[in-house]
Amino acid sequence: MYRYIFLIMAIAGGLFFLSSCTKDSPEENLKKGEEYLAANAKREGVVTTDSGLQYEVLQEGREGGRSPKSSDMVLCDYTGYFINGKKFDSSKGTPVAFPLNGVILGWTEGLQYMKEGAKYRFVIPYYLAYGPGGYASIPPYSTLIFEVELVKVL
Length: 154
Fold this sequence. Notes:
Layout: H1 2-22, H2 26-41, E1 46-48, E2 54-59, E3 73-82, E4 87-90, E5 96-99, H3 105-111, E6 119-124, E7 144-153
């Protein structure tokens, strides 16, 4: 009996979490993202590129570490957050390999500023992320935050 109550509560909690990530309208997501980017740009150590990508160096790369080109394969450890602080994705300490030209534009651009061993925080405007359509659990017009470690250029 208690197992079923726990299961029902767990399912309800999961549905609440998912609905809380997507309850804002696309217009609200756009507005909140623009406000977040404007405030973040004023923080010390944050660099805003011509494209609108923002990055902050959390850890410098290794001396002599390689920087990837967009055509390279990379090995990265990462965690992704919505601007409200909720985590939506993570490699969970197990680095993932992928082609740099096969990911969102914010990653393709941002990782090229890094050297192996570096850890950066990216704040990625919706148009360099999943755009006006969103993707899976990512709502439309979402500005995203990623903490990314470039483990190796493959």
